[in-house]
Structure formats: C-alpha cells, structure tokens
Recover the amino acids of this structure.
C-alpha cells in the first residue's frame, strides 16, 4: 500500500498495463490515441497532452481500460482542476478496431436492407404471374365494344345491363309510369366505373371491386394498356408505379403520393 501511494500516476498506469500484458501499441489503438500520448501519460508528462481538461480525459479513459479507479488517479494529478472534466474524448467502451465500429455496422446493415427490400418485393409481386392470370383475363378483357354488341347479356347475369335498358317498352301504348316505378327495385350496378391504365414499362397490377372480387391481377407488358370496369371503391396495387399512368372515369389520377419504394397501394372511392 505504501508503494502504490507513493507511485506517480504514470507509474501506476504503466505497471497496470504491463501486469495485464497489454502492449503500448495495443493500448494506443484501443484508446484511439497516438503512441506518444500513451508514453506521455506513463511519464507523467501531462503538459504535452494540451489543456488540463484533455489530459484528465485521457487519464480517465486509460484508467478505465486498465480496470483502475479513475477518480483516485485524477485526484493525484498535479495542477488538476477541482471540478470534473466537462467532456471526455471517449465515454463509451472503445472498439478494438474500425471493423467493429457501430457506425460501420449500421451503415452496412442499412445498405443491405436498401438492396434487399426492393428485390424481395419484386419477387413477391411476380410470384403470382402464372397462378391463374389467364383465368381472370376474360373479366378484364371485356371492352366497351363487347358491351355494345350485347345489349341484353343473359348469359352473364353479374355483368348484365340494368333492367331498365332490357325492359324496352314492348307495347307502344304503354304509359311511362310503370317503367319509372320498376326502376327503384333495380340495384345501382348500372353506373360501373372505369379504370384505364397505361404502362411505360413492365408493371404488376391487382384491382378489387367493392365486394372484394378480384377484377384484374397480372403482369402488364411495357407499352400495354388495360380498362377495368366495376363498382367502387376499388382497392388498387400497382408495382413499378412510376412507369404507370391511370385515369378514373376519364379523370387523371396522380400516383406519386401513393408510391412507397416502387409500389403504389390505395383505394379509389366513387
């Protein structure tokens, strides 16, 4: 005890380092200090370390690295101010090398996530291209010309035009009042809304109507276009949305506010 109480701060630091088998260069690397700064602390040459606040910070970190109590060593430093140092250069445990730096690890992790997310999303969107897109094409392929050619489509009740159109007056002398009275009993599917999409590049689309029925689900080629008819609201998913243009009942729709990464997801109301 008497020898340790008479030993200088630098001697205590040097003896602790040697006892733990830590080389001078290793201690400098772990503290992120220069070789001469470690030698200056072990030689009690604190003036060469700059301002007292910096010298105290260096000694504090060196003592912590060696498992010593820094307060006892700081109290023995000649000319040390009574108040504790405001900021120490390294309050957190110092990594052994730049390869283990937390900032480097976070940067690498962010880079991996930025690359992986678009790839996984693209693969997921294209995974269902062959899962029955040919079965759903007839629903979407219905055009205005096909509707005009079939004024009374009996074979497809779900897509039938309103009874008001089918119930054309068979009797010329029949009054107009019965036709007007029968109209309220007919649901409103007559006012089908139309979504028109054009694709500047290959893009995946999924569109559902108000009942949740899938109206359109396929990978669209570059330069293609498609018209989708149904009852709003529509749930719409468009991959590679930056290369797509949409109109809703003739009104252009700006897709930019809905794009997250490369995919746009939104609901179109009436």
């Amino acid at each position: 005890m008497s020898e340790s109480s008479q030993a200088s701060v630098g001697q205590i630091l040097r003896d602790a380092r040697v006892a733990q088998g830590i080389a001078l260069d290793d201690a400098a690397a772990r503290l992120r200090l220069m070789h001469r700064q470690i030698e200056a602390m072990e030689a009690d040459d604190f003036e060469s370390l700059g301002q007292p606040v910096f010298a105290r910070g260096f000694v504090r970190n060196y003592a912590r690295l060696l498992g010593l109590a820094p307060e006892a060593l700081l109290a023995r430093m000649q000319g040390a101010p009574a108040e504790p140092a405001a900021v120490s250069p390294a309050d957190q445990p110092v990594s052994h090398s730049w390869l283990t730096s937390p900032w480097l690890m976070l940067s690498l992790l962010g880079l991996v996530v930025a690359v992986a997310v678009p790839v996984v999303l693209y693969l997921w969107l294209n995974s269902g291209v062959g899962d029955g897109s040919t079965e759903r094409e007839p629903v979407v392929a219905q055009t205005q010309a096909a509707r005009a050619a079939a004024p009374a489509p009996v074979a497809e009740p779900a897509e039938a035009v309103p009874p008001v159109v089918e119930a054309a007056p068979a009797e010329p002398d029949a009054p107009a009042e019965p036709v007007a009275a029968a109209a309220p009993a007919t649901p409103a599917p007559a006012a089908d809304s139309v979504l028109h999409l054009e694709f500047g590049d290959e893009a995946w689309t999924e569109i559902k109507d108000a009942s949740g029925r899938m109206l359109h689900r396929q990978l669209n080629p570059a330069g293609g276009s498609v018209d989708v008819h149904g009852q709003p609201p529509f749930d719409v998913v468009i991959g590679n949305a930056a290369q797509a243009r949409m109109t809703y009942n003739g009104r252009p729709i700006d897709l930019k506010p809905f794009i997250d990464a490369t995919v746009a997801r939104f609901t179109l109301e009436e």
